[in-house]
Structure formats: structure tokens, C-alpha cells
Write a sequence for this structure.
């Protein structure tokens, strides 16, 4: 879907974007947060269906926390920040400066409302930054919804829960570093065919220069 | 503005602020009047950045600008920011607020909408809940620990730390079931110290207790992991030897036990020499259940006692 040059440009761009988001987050929680996107992939729903090897490993069966927000108008889609539930809990605890030595137990995920508030804000900052920068890059005006937080159980059989037909999905494998802890998550940006084409064309013009 | 719209703004249970493109306040609802004690006449027309210096900080100013210029909505949680619009001085200060910053466009006119919700009650509840969960967790650990301790106490002899009668019978029953199923042989030994009463009488209970502890230590060193040595009380010990191949195995162990008594027990300058009397019962042959195997080993031990002590003897049904 993307040749290696395009991939390199996009990876570099996105790392700059999440770097800025990390700056905002660090200020917010008063500690150094480093964000990096070591790997990106662009897939279509059909190729995702064909073989599970395209799925980020985050979709192993279990609970996940998904925060999603829609954006539009001409560049349009839906952005997700997704964590395995225990990683999300770790992130919240680190942000609130709570004890990290307490083992996060996969079986008893005791999320409370304020945990979701914190995740909502974190995802808001990151997704706004990434989507906003895409808007700047394409020089287009965007509208944003507020994030919706969901705790979802992904079973063996329905690992494609978030995916619809005829969409392209930009998968950004994201690592957070904070308080000597690493938290892994995935940013997924579902884009319409038009939006993907637009983005790739713009990257190509950048490469021609 | 439509009067009913204005009434509604004042009725809603959250703080509503609308800012114009220069961040001047143009709507300040009754919820905020109650919170801050500052009424609309006072606030409308003033600049939020000047009134509330928090919004002059770059990170907050960026959020306002993001909404105004880039159309970005932003949720700010009380868990991380605590408070945005502080209450009047005569009100409690330890409150928590969530803030929602959203763009509001009217044709070409751009505004920013701020919604402030009070989360104090919520946070207090969450805090209490967290403390409760922590306390419950601690209590659970304590109960678990004391259960483990009392379970150990109920199954062990406090002087020697050896299993007591209950645990011995339980283990014997288990081993018996296995032996029955697999056609195995096992031995039960009943052991009594000759002359122990005299040790207590001559040197006192403290010395007697030490002798019992040392006896337990010495015998334990001879045993396999699968063997069980228990103290029934007084100077009576029982020993379970599962999966032996012949009575000869039991005799060997009995001989070894006798040999550990050849060394005197040295306690408080006293050198005490004792001997054991040992009775042995064997499954199959001398009983099919725990009680009769123990009883018959006991009887064999009494035969040893009556025939001169310091020896071991197998149970014989006809005697």
C-alpha cells in the first residue's frame, strides 16, 4: 500500500506529531513522557480480514480500552487510541503518580470513572495532535468530536470488531515511556479512500521536491 | 437572546462560559455565579485570561486557541488538573472540576464554549472507594495469614513443630488408600522413650521438653521426604513409612532410630541417656485402617516395654 519512501516520510512526520503530543502530556502530568511510533502500517479492511498477521498484536483476545474520535470535513475518518486494558491501567497509575509496584492483574481490572477520565484526556491530546497535524499538512480545516471511551472484550472470533468495509487503516504502533515504565498501545486511523489518496498524493509531492 | 434559552442556561447543572475570539467572556451562567460569587454584570466583557491566570499559561492558552483556530475539542480531567474556576473564598476550596473546551462557530464568527462540571462528590466517593478497596485488601491478607497460621497450629504439635495426631491420621489414610489401590506395603511405628518420666522428675519439664525436641530433630534426619513423624503427646511418637518393599525395610529404620539414642542428650550440663521402645505394624496384615494400625503398633511397643525395653518388635496378632 505504501512504498518504503512514503512509509519513511509518514513515519518521520508522525513521530514529530506524537513528539509534540508527548510534550503536552508531560506538562499535564508533570513528568517526562516520551512517545514514539517505531512502526506504521497502512492496511485495508479486506487485507486485514485475509490474514491475521496484519493485525497489531494488541488484538489478542482480552479486554482492550478504546478511545475514539471522529474528524472531518474533507479529510475524514475516525481515530482510535487502543490499549490492552492492563497497559491502560499502568498508564493511568503512572500519570496519577500512583504505586506502580502493585501488580496490575489481568483478571481483576478495577477501572473506576476517574481512570477513564484520565484516559479520555490522554487520548484527546494525542489524537488531536496527530489529526491536527495531518490537517495542517494537507492544509485543510477539520472538525473534531470528543473522544468516546469504551472497555471492550475482544474474543477469539471477533478480533475485527473495529473495522468496517471499504476503509483504510493507518496503524501506528505507539510506545509510551514514563516513570521508568513502558506502555504499549496502538493508534489506528480509519480513513476513507479519498482521504488516503489525498494523503499519499501530498506525500508524493513532498518526495518530488 | 430568547428568554427561555437564557433561563435554561441558568438552570443547567454545570458552568457555561462562552468566549469571543479575543477570549472575552460573553456568557457567564448562574451556576458560575453561585460558585464564584461573581455575577454576570461583573464578568461579562472581562477577559478570561486576565481574570483566571491559569488560562494565561501556555498549555491552557494553546487549548483555547486550538478550539478557536483549529476547531479542536478538548477534555480536561479533574483527576489531572484539579480545578479551573476556583470557588469564592467563603466556600470549600478542595473541589475537583472537569472542563470541556469546544469550538463554537456562528457563520464566520468564532467562539469558544467552556463547560465546567463539578466532580467533587464523585472524587470523594472514588477516594473513599479506593481506600476501602485498599483496606479490604489488607484485611484479606491478614485473614489469609492468620488462617494459614491457625491451620498450621491445628495440625502441628507446638513443642516440636511435628505433625499432630490429626495430621498423622489424615496422612496415614491417604497413604493407605494409595497402598490399597497400588498393592503397596507400609509400616506404622509407635515409639516411646524409656525413662522419660524420670528425666522430667529429676531435671524438670524444661529439660524434658528439650529432650523431646532433640529426639524429633535426630529422628527427622533419618527419614525420607515421604515419611511422616508425628508426636501424639507426652513422649509418644508415631512414624509412617509408606511404600516399603519388605518388613526388613521397617526393621532397618527401627535399628537406625535406636542408634541415634546412643549419643547422650546434652542439656544444661546434664548428659542424659535414653532408649526407645518401638512397636511396628505393617499394612497389609496388621490392619486395614489408620486406627487399628496405630493401635497394633502401640500394642507391639507395650510388648517391648514388658520384655525389657530398648528394642523394636513387629505386631503379632496371636499374642
Amino acid at each position: 500500500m505504501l512504498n518504503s519512501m512514503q512509509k519513511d516520510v509518514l513515519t518521520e512526520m508522525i513521530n514529530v506529531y506524537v513528539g509534540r503530543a508527548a510534550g503536552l502530556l508531560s506538562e499535564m502530568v508533570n513528568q517526562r513522557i516520551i512517545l514514539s511510533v517505531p512502526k506504521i502500517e497502512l492496511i485495508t479492511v479486506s487485507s486485514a480480514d485475509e490474514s491475521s498477521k496484519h493485525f497489531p498484536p494488541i488484538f489478542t483476545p482480552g479486554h482492550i480500552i478504546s478511545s475514539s474520535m471522529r474528524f472531518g470535513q474533507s479529510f475524514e475518518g475516525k481515530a482510535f487510541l487502543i490499549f490492552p486494558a492492563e497497559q491502560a491501567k499502568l498508564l493511568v497509575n503512572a500519570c496519577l503518580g500512583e504505586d506502580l509496584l502493585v501488580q496490575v492483574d489481568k483478571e481483576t481490572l478495577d477501572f473506576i470513572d476517574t481512570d477513564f477520565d484520565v484516559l479520555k484526556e490522554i487520548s484527546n491530546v494525542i489524537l488531536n495532535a496527530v489529526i491536527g497535524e495531518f490537517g495542517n499538512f494537507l492544509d485543510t480545516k477539520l472538525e473534531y468530536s470528543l473522544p468516546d471511551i469504551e472497555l471492550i472484550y475482544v474474543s477469539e472470533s471477533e478480533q475485527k470488531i473495529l473495522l468496517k468495509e471499504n476503509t483504510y487503516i493507518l496503524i501506528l504502533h505507539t510506545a509510551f515511556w514514563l516513570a521508568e515504565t513502558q506502555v504499549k498501545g496502538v493508534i489506528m486511523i480509519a480513513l476513507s479512500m479519498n482521504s488516503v489518496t489525498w494523503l499519499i498524493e501530498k506525500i508524493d509531492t513532498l518526495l518530488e521536491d | 437572546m430568547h428568554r427561555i434559552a437564557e433561563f435554561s442556561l441558568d438552570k443547567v447543572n454545570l458552568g457555561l462560559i462562552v468566549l469571543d475570539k479575543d477570549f472575552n467572556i460573553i456568557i457567564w451562567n448562574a451556576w458560575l455565579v453561585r460558585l464564584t460569587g461573581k455575577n454576570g454584570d461583573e464578568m461579562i466583557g472581562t477577559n478570561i485570561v486576565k481574570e483566571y491566570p491559569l488560562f494565561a499559561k501556555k498549555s491552557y492558552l494553546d487549548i483555547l486557541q486550538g478550539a478557536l483556530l483549529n476547531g479542536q475539542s478538548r477534555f480536561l480531567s479533574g483527576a489531572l488538573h484539579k480545578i479551573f474556576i476556583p470557588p469564592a473564598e467563603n466556600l470549600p476550596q478542595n473541589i475537583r472540576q472537569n472542563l470541556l473546551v469546544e469550538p463554537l462557530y456562528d457563520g464566520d464568527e468564532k467562539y469558544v464554549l467552556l463547560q465546567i462540571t463539578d466532580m467533587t462528590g464523585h472524587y470523594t466517593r472514588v477516594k473513599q472507594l479506593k481506600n476501602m478497596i485498599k483496606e479490604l485488601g489488607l484485611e484479606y491478607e491478614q485473614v489469609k495469614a492468620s488462617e494459614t497460621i491457625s491451620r498450621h497450629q491445628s495440625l502441628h504439635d507446638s513443642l516440636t513443630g511435628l505433625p499432630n495426631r490429626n495430621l498423622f491420621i489424615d496422612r496415614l489414610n491417604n497413604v493407605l488408600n494409595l497402598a490399597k489401590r497400588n498393592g503397596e506395603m507400609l509400616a506404622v511405628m509407635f515409639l516411646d522413650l524409656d525413662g522419660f518420666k524420670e528425666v522430667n522428675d529429676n531435671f524438670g519439664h524444661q529439660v524434658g521438653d528439650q529432650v523431646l525436641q532433640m529426639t524429633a530433630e535426630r529422628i527427622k534426619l533419618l527419614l525420607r521426604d515421604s515419611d511422616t513423624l508425628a508426636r501424639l503427646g507426652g513422649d509418644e511418637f508415631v512414624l509412617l513409612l509408606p511404600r516399603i518393599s519388605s518388613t526388613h525395610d521397617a526393621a532397618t529404620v527401627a535399628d537406625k532410630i535406636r542408634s541415634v539414642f546412643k549419643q547422650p542428650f546434652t542439656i544444661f550440663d546434664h548428659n542424659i541417656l535414653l532408649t526407645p521402645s518401638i512397636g511396628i505394624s505393617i499394612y497389609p496384615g496388621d490392619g486395614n485402617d489408620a486406627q487399628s494400625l496405630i493401635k497394633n503398633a502401640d500394642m507391639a511397643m507395650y510388648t517391648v516395654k514388658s520384655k525389657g525395653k530398648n528394642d523394636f518388635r513387629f505386631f503379632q496378632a496371636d499374642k
In short: The mean pLDDT of chain A is 80.
